[in-house]
Design brief:
This protein is globular. Strands 1, 2, 3, 4, 5, 6, 7, 8 and 9 form a nine-stranded antiparallel beta sheet that branches. The chain has five helices and nine strands. By secondary structure, it is of the alpha+beta class.
Length: about 220
């Protein structure tokens, strides 16, 4: 078992009640810490919990092992040590308070495609480049109407290939994804249009890193 953090944006149907007078509810950010077999398992457990609690998952800001947590990846303060202790002590999901926000026109209008950046480890690649490969970064675009479905598709596809998810950043409507902030390329000239036409998942080229190199998802 490992301990993982997941920062998300979600929508609560009752969220308007938490807003100051005159403000409009656009969603809320939350931070979770939980124990799981691996990150893929943690993501599935968390996404199911969000649904069970009547929320809609809109975005995954960042997710990974707590040992690799950087407080710059979330836009609010969290006491990671306290949350880790609570999650490990109880065996349950530890969640921060909600941080509501107003609507943002840059969040995308529902393109039918989600995009994210992944940090992953391919055991076959590791065998081929033993000692020099520890993992790789890659972008993914996924045809899906919801973040929950996109996440399920991504996790399922990687599990089917035996690829281990190490970290995940920015699972969000493709209209809101900062493609220009990453130095990746897709074989397809217009990956978003292609995945809309063909369905499924399209992956960019991958950048490998070695055992001693610091891991950063952004460029």
């Amino acid at each position: 078992m490992g301990t993982y953090y997941i920062a998300i944006e979600a929508h609560d149907p009752e969220g308007q009640a938490s807003m100051p007078e005159g403000a409009i509810y656009g969603g809320e950010a939350r931070f979770f810490v939980l124990q799981a077999e691996d990150l893929a398992d943690a993501l599935m457990v968390l996404s199911n919990s969000v649904v069970v609690n009547g929320l809609r998952l809109d975005r995954i800001l960042h997710a990974g092992a707590v040992e690799a947590f950087d407080d710059e990846v979330v836009p609010f303060e969290v006491d990671i040590d306290e949350m880790v202790a609570a999650a490990q002590g109880s065996g349950e999901i530890c969640v921060s308070e909600a941080h509501p926000f107003e609507p943002d026109e840059t969040d995308g209008s529902g393109s039918g495609v989600f995009a994210c950046c992944i940090d992953a480890c391919d055991p076959e690649w590791a065998d081929e480049d033993e000692g020099t490969y520890a993992g790789h970064y890659q972008l993914a675009v996924i045809k899906s109407e919801t973040a929950t479905e996109a996440l399920q598709m991504l996790v399922g596809a990687f599990e089917a290939e035996g690829i281990i998810l190490v970290a995940l950043e920015g699972l969000v409507d493709a209209e809101a994804f900062p493609f220009d902030g990453y130095e990746f390329e897709f074989e397809e000239e217009d990956a978003i249009s292609d995945v809309l036409d063909e369905g499924g998942i399209l992956l960019s080229n991958a950048y490998a890193y070695g055992p001693q190199e610091p891991r950063r998802l952004d460029s």
